[in-house]
Design brief:
This protein folds into three domains: 3-122, Rossmann fold (3-Layer(aba) Sandwich); 141-366, Alpha-Beta Horseshoe (pyruvate-formate lyase- activating enzyme), CATH 3.80.30.20; 370-427. It is built from twelve helices and 19 strands. The protein has helices spanning 12-27, 51-67, 78-90, 105-115, 158-162, 170-182, 205-213, 233-237, 257-263, 269-282, 301-314, 341-366; strands spanning 3-8, 31-32, 41-46, 72-77, 95-97, 141-147, 166-167, 187-192, 199-200, 203-204, 220-223, 247-249, 287-294, 318-323, 370-378, 383-387, 393-397, 406-416, 423-427. Strands 2-1-3-4-5 form a five-stranded parallel beta sheet, with helices on both faces. Helix 11 (301-314) packs parallel to helix 12 (341-366). The longest helix has 26 residues, at 341-366.
Length: 428
């Protein structure tokens, strides 16, 4: 029995692909090795969204080769599409596999062990031919519905490494959902590079979600990170369905129209505000979270203040704050008025504090409310941990609690875990 280990960097799309690949290897008799333990094969699923991401990927590959000189190393993911020649010339990896052939990784590795060699270039390009994951590194099952992007934000290299927008056939998605529900997954997380733009034949994102909600089974659906669009009232009404979790992570990036324009984002602050207000009209308790970039080239004290004011106004319960990082090959990398690193760090801390204030207010508003908790794990002290449908973390002290089951609870005392930003609810 061969042992295989996976190292995944980057987005939920990469996580989905790793889960599917790991399940495929396990089904074929491979043993999935614990992180940092010895293995016959190491797969590094890379990210290249920033220069820092590239550095982390290089470090991971170097570390594996240093610790396990005899192991087979396969590198795949976005860094391959961006820096393939560099990776090939380094000699650190035995196989360098681009995103378009990532789904064939099992066949490439299996052929290597059967014949002593394999040629990744000989395999067909296919972004969606991953087998449904049945045993993953996560309690939720990620479902990839879309890949690529046509937006060309000035700071982002994703269209160059993931390609143009491509939607997975709807029937394949429905079958994927049915299979993972059959494997007893209780939460389905829809993911993709720009999935709000999903369009396959006559099915758009709205219709796709509506159809998934009609699939039989005791499960709920969560929409992962999504770009802001003018969601229709029909789509927003879907969040009143018991299966659709009232939470979306909608990527704002800046609360300043001036900065949004230089980012080449295709909406205004007013349009984003209107979208959030409409969402709250349908579900006043809706949990909105977001990404914000601080220190983008040309960001002034005034435009940063506009971002801060807008973040407070909308009340995002969590703000994933990014310090702008130069991405070679993008328009933003050559823009004038680059912000000093010290200023980026200071602004990042300010935004994190706003995030904490917002989270505290949202959690206080949710106290005493009913939630349907999915128990994801039970810790060494017998405390069940999981999330309610609003994506709020919950701790439950109940000796009869079972992993991967739903339980109806009421949110009680707010507790802090590890640090002040790690907040959760005890149950009443």
């Amino acid at each position: 029995m061969k042992k295989i280990s996976f190292k995944t960097l980057g987005c939920r799309v990469n996580l989905y692909e790793t889960d599917a690949l790991a399940s495929r290897f396990k089904a074929a008799g491979y043993e999935i090795a614990e992180a940092d333990s010895a293995a016959d094969v190491f797969v590094v699923n890379t990210c290249t969204v920033t220069n820092t991401s590239d550095q982390k990927c290089r470090q991971a590959i170097h570390q594996i080769r240093r610790k396990h000189p005899e192991a087979l190393i396969a590198v795949t993911g976005c860094m391959v599409n961006h820096r393939k020649e560099e990776l090939l010339q380094s000699g650190l990896a035995d196989y360098v596999i681009d995103n378009e052939r990532k789904a064939a990784l099992f066949d490439i590795i299996d052929e290597h062990f059967r014949n002593g060699h394999s040629d990744p270039e000989g395999y067909d390009r296919d972004l969606f031919s991953y087998q449904p994951a049945f045993d993953t590194f996560h309690t939720r099952s990620l479902i990839k519905i879309h890949d690529g992007c046509n937006n060309f934000c000035s700071y982002c290299i994703i269209p160059m490494v993931r390609g143009r927008a491509t939607s997975r056939p709807a029937e394949d998605i429905y079958n994927n959902v049915r299979e993972v529900v059959g494997h007893d997954f209780k939460e389905i997380v829809l993911t993709g590079v720009n999935m709000g733009r999903y369009q396959h034949e006559n099915t758009n994102f709205e219709q796709l979600v509506e159809n998934i909600l009609e699939i039989d089974g005791d499960f709920r659906v969560r929409v992962s990170s999504i770009e802001p669009d003018q969601f229709s009232d029909r789509f927003l009404a879907l969040f009143q369905h018991e299966k659709l979790a009232p939470h979306m992570h909608i990527c704002l990036q800046s609360g300043s129209d001036d900065t949004l324009k230089r980012m080449n984002r295709h909406y205004t602050v007013a349009q984003f505000r209107d979208m959030c207000q409409r969402i709250k009209t349908f579900r006043p308790d809706f949990n909105l979270t977001t990404d914000i970039i601080v220190g983008f080239p040309g960001e002034t004290e005034q435009t940063f203040k506009e971002s801060c004011d807008f973040a407070r106004e909308i009340g995002f319960s969590h703000i994933h704050t990014f310090k702008y990082s130069v991405r070679t090959g993008t328009k933003a990398a050559t823009m004038p008025n680059q912000v000093p690193e010290k200023v980026k760090s200071e602004r990042s801390e300010v935004m994190r504090q706003i995030s904490l204030e917002n989270k505290t207010k949202y959690f206080e508003m949710m106290q005493g409310r009913s939630q349907r908790m999915l128990i994801e794990r039970i810790d060494s002290k017998g405390v069940a941990r999981g999330y309610g449908e609003n994506y709020v973390p919950v701790l439950l002290k109940d000796a009869s609690a079972e992993k991967n089951t739903f339980i109806n609870i009421r949110l009680g005392e707010i507790v802090h875990r590890e640090n002040e930003e790690k907040m959760a609810f005890n149950t009443l």
